[in-house]
Write a structure and sequence with these properties.
- With 203 residues, the chain is of the alpha/beta class.
- Helices cover 26% and strands 33% of the residues.
- The chain has five helices and eleven strands.
- The chain is elongated and about 65 Å long.
Amino acid sequence: MAEETPVIAQYNRLKSEHPNEVLFFRLGDFYEMFNEDAAEVSRLLNLTLTHRGDNPMCGIPYHASKVYIARLLRMGKKIAIAEQIGEIAKKGLTERKVVEVITPGTATESEYLDGGANNFLACAAVTASRGALAYIDVTTGEFRATSFPRESIHENFSKELGRANPRELILPENLRNDPKFNLILESYPSLTVSYYPDWHFNP
């Protein structure tokens, strides 16, 4: 089992709160990633994979972080930023907490956006009689929504996805194992898809 130093224990606690995001963990002038995040990010960004004790580790300079975050967002990744809070401890452990979560559909800084194209965050929901899709560009405030009969939901969902071309899509858990929805989503390999419990979705 990997050694759990106080720093790694702190990292693991924050990571457990953000299991679906890559955790950028501030250590001095670097953001460090450990374990599975380190292995994945080092492969995706061609970074050197090192170790801290028994824990795989890779890091990026704080001052260049936006370049790396932009690249990960384009690959459909979500990023949680854990910063050092308050005074930097001369002895013991400096407090850290996640201060921001950046996802492909919620990114607002110009470094993370493709100029001239909308950056839509979309959400779909299904009731017994109808299906609906809404999408918003949080950088411009542009918002659109549509609904359609339940019997034509797959056809219309596919058309609307093609029309909006969102960066990120939120779906209820009850669609996770829908084979027709999954077939449609396979046509959009760069689309970030997140599933939330059904009770989040109210017609």
